[in-house]
Amino acid sequence: MGFDIALVLPELAMLLVVALLFAATVMTRKDSESFAGAGWLPLGALVVLAVSLASLHGKGELFSGTYRVDMLSQFFKAAIAAGFVFTSMIVRRNKLVPGNDRPDYLMLLAISAWGLMLMASAVDLITIYVAMEISSYSLYAAIPLRAQDRHAAEAGIKYIMFGALATALALYGYSWILAGQHTGLIMELAGKEWSWAQSPMACIGLLLFLCGLFFKLALFPFHFWCPDVYQGTSNETAAFAATMPKLGAAAVLVRLAALLTPDLEITHVIAAFTAVSMTLGNLSALTQKDLKRMLGYSSVAHAGYLGLGIVSGTAGGLGAAAFYALVYLLMNLACFWVVCQVTEDGKNPTYSSLNGLYKRSPMLAFVLAVAAFALVGLPPTAGFMGKLFLLTSAWGAGYQWLVIVAVLNTAIAIYYYLSLVRHAYTEEADEAEVRPTLGAGTKLAGAVMAVSILLLGVMASPVYRLAVQAGSGLLP
After folding, report:
1. Rounded to the nearest 5 degrees, what angle is found at the Cα of 165, between the Cα atoms of 160 and 167?
2. What is the helix (H) or strand (E) element at residue 271, kind and residue range?
3. pLDDT tens per residue, range 392-447
4. Rounded Cα–Cα distance for residues 184 and 374 (Å)
5. Apex CA 212: angle with CA 104 and CA 114, to 5°?
6. Which neighbouring-strand residues pair with 62?
7. 3-state DSSP call for residue 106?
């Protein structure tokens, strides 16, 4: 089969952005204001998004079947491109990265997004591993960039150490799968036996390989790094790290979930991790004062919600997981967008930082309210529809107990999510009011995210059908 360049246009568009940022890194820069990359990067990201949407119905295989372009891969590439549009508008305001380092910083984030796109199409376990490392290594270097802050250095070390452990387990698990099933191609693995009685070595290997994905998703028991890294790194970098890697992990998990059925031992283990992740994440978030730590534990809980669709093993469940990954990107990015605006000095905000926000910046308060309601799962937001699809799929697969756990955890989450709205609308600021300054592009980004969350809540069917169609293509 010949190489069809049209199949990889989204990846090439993102790679072109990386190349342009690399060119900016080698140019002579005398001051921070001379860096032009911050201006054109959102436009470049929009081009990548346009190319990804135009390639949505692409289909084919490359590199001897190890790289597959299908509805699932193109759905996630479009979601990654959309996330990169918003994150590029957020991270270019990062004042804690020195001007001379900004091209390198933005290039690292672009390389990470490119690696995530590769993960979406990788259908061979070793190819998935390489793509996962491409997306991770650049973040290892970007996390500590916070104006010589020792807490950022600590966050970088923790991220590297936990990442090294998780990827080592994934690579070790790959060797066990190769020994037990004699192939690493997902299409061939789909025809193999995955019960403990028939293939114990392969089952252990798959669980170990999943550890690398659990790390990126911040799913229990590989969640410990999450709140510390979010708290230590800059607000803008945390916005990227808290959202974009989740899409790559979700894409691979949806592919691998097609191998499993609800009655297998591996599926039961994932379901147990899902239940613990939801409960631990929500209970830990209740006690947090730092908003980024709270959002870190929130990520742990939402990784558990995503697991509801993974364990169902149906086209509806896989589609629900893909849909919720997109919704989570919008909800969490909207929250981090507000976090990045309320502190002009780049310090970590607390709940009290939101006091009187409805007076200081009505738009920030509105976007925060929409995002908080969506994260809880209240109608008419996309979060409600996403959770409804996930709960329905898990219930239909026989995981009624897991649905009950998810509903109880949603009730727990109401307290700390609505505390965001309470502080923004009912609490008065204790000190002189500081009105956040929002540029036209910043306002546009916040408005688009809020409107998207609401539109996906009232008109979810087209996107959900697209996601289910992507999931259906994975099942035999």
Report:
1. 90
2. helix 265-285
3. 988 888 888 999 999 999 899 898 888 888 888 887 776 655 666 677 777 888 88
4. 38
5. 35
6. 67
7. helix
